[in-house]
Amino acid sequence: MARTVVISGGGTGIGFATAETFAADGDQVVLIGRREDVLARAAERLPSARHFAADLRDPTQVRSAAAFLEREYGAVDVLVHGAGGNGGREDRIESDDPLAAVAHDWTVNFQLNTLTAALLTEALKGHLATPGGRVLFLSSIAAYRGSGSAAYGASKAALHPYAFQLARALGPRGITVNVVAPGLVEETDFFADPLPRERREALAAETDTGRLGHPGDVAGTLHWLASSGAGHITAQIIQVNGGAERGH
What three-state secondary structure class fits 50? Predict the structure, then answer.
C-alpha cells in the first residue's frame, strides 16, 4: 500500500534523492520548501509527486502546509526533514558590529536547521500514521566535530535531544523517530562555492572507504529507517560518513 511521504527540502540534493527513492517504491511523495520553481521542477521528474511551497521558519506558512496535507492526505506516514543549510546562501547583514554578525549567523542557522524541523513536526505530530509513522531528521557530522561553522554544527546537534524527546512521546503510538547524520556529500548545492580540490581530497582521505558521500547513500539509509524492518529502531543517530567519524 502506498504511503504518504512528506519531504522538506525535497527539491534538490539529498532531499530530492530521498524523494526519488520513495517514489520508486510507489509512495506518494509531497515536496515542501521555500522555492516554488525548484519544487515544481523536481515534482515533474517524479511519478505522482506533488509539492507545496512554504517557508518553514514561518508558523503561519507551516500551518498552511499542515492544513494542505491533512485535507489532501489525512495521515502522514513518513516525515523527512531535509530542509536546512549553513546560511551561506542567505542574505548578509550590513554592520560593523562583530557581535551583530555573530547573532545573525547563529539565528539564521537555528532558523534553517532547527526551527524548520521543529515547527513542521509539531504541526504534523497529530497527523502521523498510528501505528507505523516515521519521523526522520537530517543532522550532520558537524554536530559531532564542530567542523565548518560552529553555528551550523550547533543547530544540527540541537535536533538530537529533540528527536529523543519525540521518540519517547510518540513511541506509545507505534511511531519511530530517528536521525541520520551524513558526512560531506557531493552533488548537492550545500556550499555556495565548490570545494577546492585539495580540500575535497583531504576530506575523502579521512574516510575508511576512500570517498565522499553521494545523496543516494543518505537516501537509502532514510528509506530503510522508514521500512517495517526498522520498526524497533528509534531514538538513534545513524552516521553515514564512510568512517570519517566513528560511532558514539
Answer: strand
Does pTM top 0.85 for this prediction? Answer: yes
Query: Which residues, including other chains, have CB under 8 Å from residue 91's CB and lie 6 or more apart?
Result: none
Over the Cα atoms of the chain, what is R_g?
A: 17
Report strand pairing: 134-138 vs 50-53: unpaired
Q: What is the mean pLDDT of the chain?
A: 93
- CA–CA dist 52, 39 (Å, integer): 8
Which residue in 44, 56, 53 sits closest to 81, CA to CA? 56
Q: Is the dihedral of CA 16, 178, 107, 61 positive or negative?
A: positive
Domains of the chain by start residue, with CATH: 4-240 (3.40.50.720)
Q: Omega into 131 within 30° of 0, i.e. cis?
A: yes
Cell of 81: 526533514
Measured CA to CA, the distance from residue 87 to residue 126 in angstroms comes to 31
| Length of the chain as a residue count | 248
| C-alpha–C-alpha distance, residues 91 and 105, integer Å | 10
Beta strands in 96-243 (DSSP E): 134-138, 176-182, 236-240
* DSSP assignment letter at 113: I
To which H or E segment does residue 8 belong? strand 4-8
How does pLDDT run across 48-101, given as a tens digit for each residue?
899 999 999 999 999 999 999 999 999 999 999 999 987 656 567 777 899 998
